[in-house]
Amino acid sequence: MYEKRKFSDSWAIILGGSSGFGLATVEKLAEYGMNSTVVYRETAMQERSLRLKMEALAEKQNVSIELFNINALDTAARHGLIEKLTEDKHKKGAVRLLLHSIARGNLKPLMPQTGMNVDSIETISVEDIRYTTYAMSTSLLDWARELLAAGLFQKDGRIIGLTSEGAHKHWDGYGAVSIAKSSLESLSTYMAVELGRFGIKTNLIQAGITETPSLNKIPGSEKLIQVAKERNPLGRVTQTTDVANVIYLLCTDEAGWINGSVIHVDGGEHCR
């Protein structure tokens, strides 16, 4: 029982926690007593379903799960939420994990399929790239610095982001996201060094191909899934629970010396 409640005084802040890796992480950490503040952006109909699910989970695991349907990329929204968190004395110095699981961006090619009209609405713009990079990369820095300044992190805090193989190879329509993920990998290296003096460890997980709502939006996702099954040594695609399990491990005391790493969670898919 002690093992299961090891994080009962700790909090996780999950950016993008309504589905996919973020949701699976909330569920996994709740098993070990970790409370969660979940930030997401959903329609009223989707939110109703999420709230019912989280209420049932919180009751089952005897944890607190706070839901905030706000734009995590909006400065005022971020300020407002962090101010609200600092008002709760139980959260001061209690944030064990900041997970960045925001999947928001543009999925267009760099060049049109026919002709040379790069101003076509079918192609990615510099503004699209800028937005996607902030959403899926540099917004992590804003959240981390503000949480640190507010005194919310534990002395042994963890920051985890999510990258992908698409940061290093061509996937159709993935250009803006690839740029964002590459940026995130560089950013995490600098955060690992410069936040390390505060006791905070920053790492990234490179998950294998995983069937999530975000993946399904990528052009040709069905082919990505099929190829992943064929090349994976363990014969299946990655599941969100596989990733959540490793996020949990990175939160443990035993993982305290892991900093500045990109950890493959893909069953060996990246090996071939």
UniProtKB/TrEMBL annotation:
One of the record's GO molecular function terms: oxidoreductase activity
InterPro entries, per the entry: NAD(P)-bd_dom_sf (IPR036291), SDR_DHRS6-like (IPR051122), SDR_fam (IPR002347)
Key words, A-Z: Oxidoreductase
Keyword Cell membrane found: no
UniProt entry tagged with the keyword Cell cycle: no
Pfam families: adh_short_C2
UniProt similarity note: Belongs to the short-chain dehydrogenases/reductases (SDR) family.
Protein name stated in the entry: SDR family oxidoreductase
Organism for this UniProt entry: Mucilaginibacter gilvus
